[in-house]
Fold this sequence. Notes:
Immunoglobulin-like; 47% helix
Amino acid sequence: MIKGHVYDSSSKKVLSPVSIENLTTHQGTFTNANGEFQLEAKMGDYLYFTYVGFKNKSIKVKEDDLTKSIEMYMSLKPVQLKDVTIYRGPTEYQKDSANRASIYKSAFEYEQQKSVMTPVTSIYQKFSKKYKNLRKFQDQIQDMERQKFIDTRYNTDLVKVLTKLPDDSVSIFMNQYPIEYDFVRAASDLEIKMWIKYNYQEFISKKKK
């Protein structure tokens, strides 16, 4: 087993979930929350590292790598936005999201309205109970919107297809392995499926203990 850690080359912070694939065997895994990974490989195999927003890297496994922990550093990838043409209409999620935005529009416009008030009134407003409740309500709406987007890409149907778990175990699995909003926003369908399979293997191994 090849073991190691993956870091951001600039901040030196661990990266997770980085996708690591053995290009020789086509087996893959992800780094855990501590940036750690382990993957079956032998000398001469090529390991391919990918992480959203960072440059892809590949290494050839050397003899030393089989006996010591690998430290992999990945660099941020500059992003150049390109013109796009949208041909199909909005998805059901986008329609629902637009509808929710219309319903809660007044709550989010409240902050803009306060700008015409005097500085004293504005400061008082920030510490008032009404304002605090409104901010809490706005945060709840944003959390709900994020969760609804996650549900479009990480849901019980997908988990059941990939893991073959029964309904009650699917719920337990998804509660134990929630997925991050930022990862879901940027990951490809394949990366999400690999993330599910990787955590499923860990889920099964824990149940056997």
